[in-house]
Amino acid sequence: MDILTAMQISGSALKAERTRLNITAMNMANANTTRTIEGGPYRAKSVVFAATPLEKSFQETLQSSHERLRQVEVVKVVEDKAPFREVYDPSHPDADANGVVKMPNVNMVEQTVDMMNARRAYEANVTALNAAKSMALKALDISR
Predict the structure, then answer these.
(1) Which neighbouring-strand residues pair with 101?
(2) pTM for this one?
């Protein structure tokens, strides 16, 4: 694996983790949203990652056919199908006849853990990217 490939893989992971962090922040921001454009309470969302082959030329693919180089890609954003939380609050404008309000299915503890994991994965990929950059600079210094 060359240095540019390592940078490309880390770069794709950074982009995917940024999307994951944005979706988690959106979930947390809408934890109390009882009305959406679609109607009803907000549904928590999560991202689905997939490993996809790096884009290479035919010649590069033949030369490195033994390698399975992959990059990370966000395939889709899915909604959580868990049931909504029901809270008794007769004074709420969205309460039904029994005074029950359907609240979003956002679990704040889960979202906080997901945000911490995304942050750590992002930091790890920044470290890998910086290591590849440092190796490239050292290689240039050697050639002087």
Answers:
(1) 87
(2) 0.81
